[in-house]
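Subject: complex prediction, re-run

Hi both,

The earlier run crashed halfway through, so I resubmitted it with identical inputs.
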Amino acid sequence: MVAVEIRGLTKSFGALRALAGIDLTLDAGEVLGLLGPNGAGKSTLVRALMGRVRPDSGEIRLFGRPSGEAGARDVLGYVPQEIALYPVLTAEENLRVFARFLGLAGEPLRAAVRRGIEFANLADRAGEPVERFSGGMKRRLNLAIGILDDPRVVLLDEPTVGVDPQSRERIYGMIGELATRGAAILYTTHYMEEAERLCDRVAVIDHGELIAVGTREELVRATVGAGREIVVTAEREIPAEIAAQLGAAVVDGDRLRLATSEPAVAIPRLLAELERCGVGVRDLELVTPGLQSVFLHLTGRELRE
Amino acid sequence: MISAVVRASWAMLRRDRAALALSFAVPIVFFSIFAVIFGGQRDASTRKVRVLAVDEDGSPRSRRMMEVLAAEEALAVSTAPAAEPGEAAPAPYDRAAAEAAVRGGDAPVAIVIPKGFGAAKIGFGPEAERAKLELLVDSSDPIAGRMVAGLLQKVIFTGMGDLLLESGIDSLDQVAEFTGEQRERLGKLLEEARRAPAAGSTSEPGRGGFELPIAVETRDLLGESKENPMISFYAAALGVMFLLFTASGAGGALIEERESGTLDRLLSTRISMPQLLAGKLAYLTSLGIVQLIVMFVWGWLVFGLDLPAHWGGFLIMAVPTALVCSAFGLVLAAVCRTRKQLVAMSNLVILSISALGGSMFPRFLMPEALQKASLVAFNSWALEGFLDVFWRDEPIVAALPEIAVLLGWTVVFFAVARRISKRWEIV
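This time it finished cleanly. Structure:
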């Protein structure tokens, strides 16, 4: 079932074109990763879904209903990038406050708060003010509050920023649980490994345009090909003309990536070319291409913070 | 190292241009307001004491008294209420009407010339035998009553000097028994004095403790039953001012919500921006009411403020006052983009309207034009309402105009805050 349907969405802020005609669908039970460098339009897209950005044109449908219709957005749950909690209130009080804002009362409210505490794995700290929590605990609570009323569509905006590996694992588990329950999840992230691990499909956005959408395998096949990838880290910046000499190579600073179906032939050629240009090699890896390669191939940039 | 701290602090202040501008605007604006208020005091014509005059005696002497009162430059004397446009001139004030007008805050003082004034003796001697004037004063204006009492000395000595002379000659005659010729010469002297009653007289007003040839009996209409009458005035004045500071500080929570991201989160739930603002308004109002209660109870317990007799009026005034201050706090919070701006803006606006509205010094101390201008400061209405029910002991209906104005301002402020807050909601 199509949970979210976005058609021809555009939005400009003055001369800046933040969304340049986005078409995207998200199915129930699917986790869709939204990848893009800073300023690519990810946040604008998420805010348009929430109704906080008025698009210049295009439309958004949620389970077939236009998003502007009364109550249509009630299916949405939102987890902001900021830790949007009241620090002096306890975890339980935070959950209760936001549950009330979601219109819950009485037993459904109490049940939602219990579920939230359990979901965030905070049963033993539920009565403590949030300001005493670690970053990871706050992130878990931040996520739990976003899904208090069991939303059918969850918008996650970088939910693991600044989180220790242990809490990150717990958050991955929470997201998996949500998808299993049938929620459609739009997951905005900077972390490629997260996208590779969690997302069924990935949408790459840059300069307000959706430049690729598909599963990891589809994207790799369509961009860097099905072969392997040689990744070279040089001792200094690599001159751009080397990329031209080597055909499909992508250069980014002191790094070079070259997709190939015949590594045994390509590696000696690459090393010879680097030597000819006087560029020393610090490291060379032969890897199976992933989203990082796809992103680099599509945008010409590494995805960094 | 210390210079690094200084430079970093200046750099941060420079970055927030609005806060920077306001931090210099606050002292300038505030200084200007005080300069206008107190600078105006140098020119005596800017502040005349409004006085109601009642002639119960109707004798030539009392009419003469009314004339010299009217001629006194420092007094603005009214003998009858102002006529409504298109209506006949109202009857002159009698004692009851003047008393009601003073109680109602129309004028701080009424001078009553009682029956028998013309027949009684003018001169020095036992008070019971002397001609008497009555002053009915509203001691919420502590200056006006004393000023008028002092001015009366001047008026009597300079404006009615011939009567004093006549009374002095009569007294001397009883002792010295003048001859006919002496009496004739003294009569001429008296006649000259009558023709130029105040010529060359520069007798200074307000010589404290000096016995008057006419007895002046002062009655404090409003403060006479109060143990510490000015306390209720200052409780109201300071209460309103601090309510504004509380409201703007607590309204700053909106800025924090925006900065921390909870506002985004709230707006992603079922709550709308008007509901959120209404909730904040209700919270701030309840906080303000509690603050006023605490302040007035403290005034009652420690300073003898007569709260038990005015509970009803107090609460009825506390609600619209807290409402309007809270709505104003929301406007300040909505206008400002940062906490720093809010602090600077609150200082500027709240201190200014507190000065203008009479929280720092009573409005009756201001020049008349400024007194009128101060009505645009909504807090002056709150203060007047508190004074109506608390100080003037008037029934609560007397404060209805003030309550209506406060509620009107609340609606306006809320609408403005709502309008400005749209920028947080959707872009």
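The longest helix of chain B spans residues 273-303.

- K.
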